[in-house]
Each structure stands twice: as structure tokens, then as C-alpha cells.
Amino acid sequence: MNLNNKARQILTHEGITGLARGIGRFVYWQSGIRKVRYKTGFKLHGSPISRTIDATTARFHLSSWNEYARVQSLQGERKIIADFLQLIKREDVFFDVGANTGLYACFAGQIIDGNVIAFEPHPGNIQRLEENAELNELDIQCHSVALSNESGTAQLKVAGGEGEAGAGTHAFSTRDHTNSIEIEKDRGDGLIEREDVPSPTVLKIDVEGAEQQVLEGLQNSLKKDNCHTVYCEVHPNRLDDLGDSTDELHSLLEECGFKIKIIERRSPQYFIKAEKEF
């Protein structure tokens, strides 16, 4: 997407204030200010570091300034994580789909009693996720697999190299397999049945365009009455690359009994919170 189209999209969805914020973010990322800020912070603080949202604290290992930046900034999702932490209860079963290095999972583990289940196919990320779980003394079930609508293998186009932890823009590769690795994928409902994994009551999905495929593979679980909330980052352009659409994704959630609201926009992607009414 070129800059003119992106600016138009931000203006349509977020108005002039959103466009101004977008320009500010662009300047911040392109000017080198961000790099200097987080490189300095990483040198000063080292590893691990603690992050607190409201009264909930989690700790994270780091191996680079980039990883420090992602944890320190909470990947720009502080508002969403705060909402999530207010919602979850001790008895919930949380699926962190596209768990990365465990930002949501490690916060969730401070509240939920044992049933935090993370899915992350990238080798560097899953290793760091397991290290972060141990650092926080949490029993997180970590699955090195991508949830999808079918079982088998897929090509994952990686950002930052196969071994680097924390990069959050890995995505299924449909055509160009440059810088890609082969990963395992599985239907969520099938995995639940085979491996005696409890069905989720709360999910967070951030899978860079494969979110509809994740939901399709979990339809039986999503339709259960006790599955009450789905947080999902929606990537319209990447959905389209995989032959899916935002309309189909919204319809699928609605058919499973959810009411949808958009809680955050970072054009072109946006974050939804889907809840069931009881």
C-alpha cells in the first residue's frame, strides 16, 4: 500500500486527528529517534525487564534492542491489554493465538489459574515464550504450531530471520517463499479433541492475515456458551491475499453468537473485541 492510499484510509476511518497521529508515527519511525531511544534503553536496563499494567506485573527476557522496544512499548497495545486484564477471571481458559514471545500469555498467567495455552509457530519466538513462562513461574502450555482451518504444513514468511525473537510480522506465504520456513499448522478444534486441551473461553488472535482461517478451525469451540470473548487484530490486505475478507470474518463471529466492536485502529489493520451477551 502506497503512502497516499494509506493516508486516505486513515483519514476515512480516523479523521484529521487520526491522520495527524499517523504522520507523527511515520516521522518517529523513519527519523531514527525510535532506534536511538530503545537502543539507549536496552543498554541501561538490560534483561530481564518488568512491565506493569494497572496492578498486574510480568517479566520478560530480552536479547536485542528491537525486542526491548516491543516489550517496553507493549507493541502499542497497552489499552487493549488493560481491557483484556480487566475482563479475564481466574477460571477462564485463554488461547493466545499468535503468541509471539508471550506478552499476553505472561500477563494472563498472573490472573488465570493454569489454563493459559499459547500457539506460536516461529522457532525463535516459541523458545523465548517458554523462557518467559519460566521467568514468571507460569505453567503455560506452549504449542509450536499455527492454528488454521486445516492440518498440514505451510510456509511462514519470516521477518528478522529464523532465530530472532520478538518480530511480530511473520505471515503465511502464498507466492514468494523467499525468507520463509516450513511450519506445522492444525485445526484448533481437532487439536483440542486429540490432545485433551480444554476449549477456550477467551481468545486473542494476532496472526497477520490468517485470522479467518484460525476462526474457521475453531468454530465448534467458538459456538460453545462458555466461549465468551475474542480479541482479534484484523489485517484486511493480508486477509485478501489469502482469499478471505473482513465481511466473512465478521459474519463467522456473528454466526457463532458474538457481537463485534472495533476497539482500536492502526490503519489498515484494526482490533476487534467480540463478546457474547448473556
Helix content: 40-55%
Could you tell me how far the N terminus lies from the C terminus, measured between alpha carbons in angstroms?
41 Å
Structural class designation? alpha/beta
Question: What are the segments in which pLDDT stays under 50 over at least 5 consecutive residues?
Answer: none
Task: Describe the structure in brief.
The chain is of the alpha/beta class. The protein contains eleven helices and 13 strands.
Question: What does this protein look like?
Answer:
With 278 residues, the chain is α/β, with parallel strands linked by helices. The protein has one domain: Vaccinia Virus protein VP39 (Rossmann fold, 3-Layer(aba) Sandwich), CATH 3.40.50.150. A 7-stranded mixed β-sheet has the order 5-4-3-10-11-13-12, sandwiched between helices. A 4-stranded mixed β-sheet has the order 6-9-7-8. Helix 2 packs across helix 3.
Record keyword descriptors for this entry.
11 helices, Rossmann fold, globular, 278 residues, 41% helix, 4-stranded mixed beta sheet, 7-stranded mixed beta sheet, 13 strands, alpha/beta
